[in-house]
Amino acid sequence: MKNIAILGSTGSVGKNTLSVIRRFPDRFRVIGLSANADIKTLDGQIKEFHPLFVCLKDKGAAFKLERNLSPKVRVFSDDEGLIELIKDKRIGQFMFAISGSAAFEPLLSAIDSGKDIALANKEALVMAGPLIMRISNRARVKIIPVDSEQSAIWQCLEGQDRGRLKTIYLTASGGPFYHESGRVLKSVSVPRVLKHPRWKMGKKISVDSATLMNKGLELLETMFLFDVSRNKVKVLIHPEALVHSMVEFVDGAVLAQISVTDMRIPIQYALSYPERLNNSLPGIDFYKLRALNFEKPDILRFPCLGLAYQAAEELGTLPVVMNAANEVAVEEFLKERLKFIEIAEIVAKVMRRHKNSLNPTLNDIRSANNWARQEAYSLTRRLN
């Protein structure tokens, strides 16, 4: 029985993780849950899974929740409470499903706890990937990727000589607007951006999927997770979204991880690794599969991916600046204070203004993150 703490349990990945655990009550036990402010969903999860402790970032919501819970359930609140929850020695593994840069400090604390981490957050690695990987290696903490693309690469590289790796092919569906004209992109609305043709995701990742910034973040995540240079990672648009990524070796052999598009598959493997457990999901019907298409991404129409290429080349504090500016720009777009095409413009301007610091410390990364957010907010206000 493995004790799991799910950080970000009310989001898409968190809910899918609970769906996996529900099928294996003899293998996994939910010991801790955390959420931002969705008290209704969290309350339902508590009643079903009976964790020993929970955390809500919103103090008011945490107070309301605590009044209705058994005194056996310990309730934490805000960022400090989450760090305290993470320290509990009964946790066997973390599922890190907190979105955005908010996962950065908790991730550092989770690594310090010495427990293995199933990681579904990419922003923290984009911010400080080299440092995080060094710290986790020193602590002998396994970081197991949960995003389907990173999980695919990890599985394809398992047991292989990484010195013989030639290329990683990182696949992308292309998002909802990949084949739309630039004219259409100038006027797309928030509801249309949030309506992904294949998946129902959180708002931030839905916008990032539409701008292709999500694939840019994954490019950097791939480099840091697998310790490869930028020139060894190629992005491919793959509309069918069945090949979750591929790796090519120096002898010309290419290994691909192919499965139906369902997050429960990589989540289940991250929890059960190195064992593979049965699931009841339908597989791919290869008799009905007529074609698998791949094409080169168009960074002229989707400049966010080009900005990520730039950050991947220069490294230092530029990735954290890019990520911070993007988070602010997406937030302002969702509030209808920016146009869709202005997201990339804000990110590019902040990156141009930044004085890059190579080999940054954690404090350098924190400072760059705060500076970039302020710059992005300032630029947005000027546009309005």
From TrEMBL:
Q: Under the GO molecular function aspect, what terms does this record hold?
A: 1-deoxy-D-xylulose-5-phosphate reductoisomerase activity; isomerase activity; manganese ion binding; NADPH binding
Sorted alphabetically, the keyword list is:
Isomerase, Isoprene biosynthesis, Magnesium, Manganese, Metal-binding, NADP, Oxidoreductase
* Residues noted as binding 1-deoxy-D-xylulose 5-phosphate in the record, renumbered to the chain: K122, S148, E149, S173, H196, S209, N214, K215, E218
Q: Which GO terms describe its biological process?
A: isopentenyl diphosphate biosynthetic process, methylerythritol 4-phosphate pathway involved in terpenoid biosynthetic process
Pathway it belongs to?
Isoprenoid biosynthesis; isopentenyl diphosphate biosynthesis via DXP pathway; isopentenyl diphosphate from 1-deoxy-D-xylulose 5-phosphate: step 1/6
Q: Which residues form the DXP reductoisomerase C-terminal domain?
A: 259-374
Which cofactors?
Mg(2+); Mn(2+)
Q: Where is the 1-deoxy-D-xylulose 5-phosphate reductoisomerase N-terminal domain?
A: 4-129
Q: Which domain of life is it from?
A: Bacteria
The segment(s) forming the 1-deoxy-D-xylulose 5-phosphate reductoisomerase C-terminal domain are: 143-226
- Catalytic function, reaction form: 2-C-methyl-D-erythritol 4-phosphate + NADP(+) = 1-deoxy-D-xylulose 5-phosphate + NADPH + H(+)
Sites binding NADPH sit at T10, G11, S12, V13, N121, E123, G202
| Any Pfam family the entry gives | DXP_reductoisom
The positions annotated for binding Mn(2+) are D147, E149, E218
Supply the EC number(s).
1.1.1.267
InterPro entries named in the record: DXP_reductoisomerase, DXP_reductoisomerase_C, DXP_reductoisomerase_N, DXPR_C, DXPR_C_sf, NAD(P)-bd_dom_sf
HAMAP family tied to this protein? DXP_reductoisom (MF_00183)
Q: Which family does it belong to?
A: Belongs to the DXR family.
As for what it does, the entry says: Catalyzes the NADPH-dependent rearrangement and reduction of 1-deoxy-D-xylulose-5-phosphate (DXP) to 2-C-methyl-D-erythritol 4-phosphate (MEP).
- Report what the protein is called: 1-deoxy-D-xylulose 5-phosphate reductoisomerase
Q: Which gene encodes it?
A: dxr
